[in-house]
Amino acid sequence: REGHSGDYKSGPAGLVSIRDGKTPGEFRFFIHLDQNGGDCTGEVDGVARFTGKSTAEFSQQGDPCAIRFTFSHNQVEIKETGGCGAYRGVGCYFNGVYRRAAARKAAAPHRKS
Q: Across the strands, what pairs with 51?
């Protein structure tokens, strides 16, 4: 369950950001969706709970939106399992495969000679 924190991308504008949660059995996430040249956008964030070694689910009481996360080989597959229309445009979904973005390396300090 460890090692999933990071940023995952799909195309030029799709982003999933995953960070450690308060307990080892959960993580915080943020999903930004931008499809069809900006015709369909959306964002959702929350806390997902692990249901298996590489799977997690997001749902909140009183909200029909539910999302399944499946981690494998430096990527995460997102699948809406409940209606998340309040968080995105009509006709597009948070579904997709997002690949882990390379971590940025800090620039070496510049020394004057």
A: none
